[in-house]
Automatic annotation (TrEMBL):
Swiss-Prot/TrEMBL keywords: DNA integration, DNA recombination, DNA-binding
Tagged with keyword Glycosyltransferase: no
Official protein name in the record: Site-specific recombinase XerD
Taxonomic placement: Bacteria, Pseudomonadati, Bacteroidota, Flavobacteriia, Flavobacteriales
Native species: Zeaxanthinibacter enoshimensis
SUPFAM superfamilies: DNA breaking-rejoining enzymes (SSF56349)
Length: 392
């Protein structure tokens, strides 16, 4: 069955240029469009839209094509009010490469990979096929892959995590398309970085919440921290998953397609009830425009503003609140096995990183320098105002 065509056009919404996303309604397609970061629903125009930028236009186009949809963007590039338009640089795959992409995505689904992984890997392979052009599969070798990876990582400024996902996507590509001359074992993922996570103190968390005046925004931040949620888990949380009597939340099909229960903080319940009574969501706990899921980009935007108001200089993301939740549990003596279950980690080694952040026993050890200065201060021969900032 042929998938519907999606039309991208220009929309002036509240004085700002937006990308209008139009299509013949289909439930699966609507869910796919809503999943793209930053997409919002307009009740006025009855469509989904996205703030316009050249990069976002390209990203949206590739995302939709990777999903197997046809995209018509001609209206978006038309001249408006005498202003020149950007040159048309968006490209579609050849029919042959489009068929390969669809076969690749079907292969991933056959491996029972999550929709998120299929979309991510599909986007990487779309770019790879676009890079190769009409090059036959039999001519693709490790050098082709290396040059592509080097160019893409440099241009997109990928971090270690995205780089590892890219290699993973290409490994599956080489397994599926045996006609290539790619030596799979030679495709090596970069080693994971072992950086310690950024963590807020409990005082900083409280200051952050107090400096978030919007009820919905404060509820979002308090919920992420109080239950240690991933941003995707927050956005997918439905009203039916909230059990007020047992004071817990059911997280469905989280990372690794696992369900789990997490604690619903007793102190959070009054805030939650205030939010529910004020906003009256119908399906999702944190509901976006048009009754759909809320946008992750919106969460990151108001979190940044709240941090500025709270005077927090650290680089904070929604995941920082999850890191802080885990760290504070460990500091309060909660067993690591329990922390692992609450966070939904499949490996205990992942949870162990919080023992390096939450080592209050080590941080409370006094430096020998402090002992030396204190010893000098206790000596009656030395002046009482002795300090390192002046002459000893």
């Amino acid at each position: 069955m042929k998938k519907p065509t999606i039309i991208l056009s220009s929309l002036d919404h509240r004085g700002q240029k937006m990308i209008r996303i139009s299509y013949t309604f289909e439930k699966q397609l609507a869910a796919y469009v809503k999943a793209f970061p930053g997409v919002r629903w307009s009740r006025t125009y009855g469509c989904y839209y996205l703030p316009y930028s050249y990069n976002r236009k390209n990203e949206l186009f590739h995302y939709l094509v990777a999903g197997g949809y046809w995209v018509d963007y001609e209206q978006l590039n038309r001249k408006q009010a005498g202003k020149p338009v950007e040159p048309k640089t968006l490209r579609v795959l050849s029919a042959e490469n489009q068929a390969r992409l669809e076969r690749y995505q079907q292969y991933l689904r056959g491996l029972r990979m999550s929709d998120s992984t299929v979309q991510t890997y599909g986007s990487f392979v779309f770019t790879f096929l676009e890079y190769l052009g009409d090059k036959p599969l039999s001519a693709i070798d490790n050098t082709s892959v290396r040059l592509f990876v080097e160019e893409l990582v440099r241009r997109k400024k990928y971090g270690i995590s995205s780089h590892r996902q890219l290699i993973g996507a290409l490994k599956h590509f080489s397994v599926l398309f045996t006609e290539t001359r790619i030596d799979n074992p030679e495709l090596v993922r970069p080693k994971r970085s072992r950086l310690l996570p950024t963590v807020l103190s409990q005082e900083e968390v409280m200051r952050l919440l107090q400096r978030t005046p919007n009820l919905k925004h404060r509820t979002v931040l308090a919920l992420i921290y109080s239950s240690g949620l991933r941003i995707s888990e927050l956005l997918n949380l439905e009203l039916k998953d909230v059990d007020l009597e047992r004071k817990q939340l059911r997280i469905r099909q989280a990372k690794g397609r696992k369900d789990r229960y997490v604690v619903l903080a007793e102190s959070f319940i009054p805030l939650l009830m205030n939010y529910l009574n004020s906003y009256r969501p119908t399906k999702y706990v944190i509901q976006g425009d048009g009754g759909g899921r809320y946008s992750g980009s919106s969460v990151r935007a108001f979190l940044k503003r709240s941090c500025q108001r709270a005077g927090i200089l650290k680089k904070v993301s929604p995941h920082t609140l999850r890191h802080s939740y885990a760290t504070h549990l460990v500091e309060n003596g909660v067993n690591l096995r329990h922390v692992q279950e609450l966070l939904g980690h499949s490996k205990p080694e992942t949870t162990m990183i919080y023992t390096h952040v939450a080592r209050r026993d080590l941080l409370n050890i006094r430096s020998p320098l402090d002992d030396a200065v204190l010893k000098l201060l206790k000596d009656d021969k030395n002046p009482p105002h002795l300090s390192l900032s002046g002459d000893l």
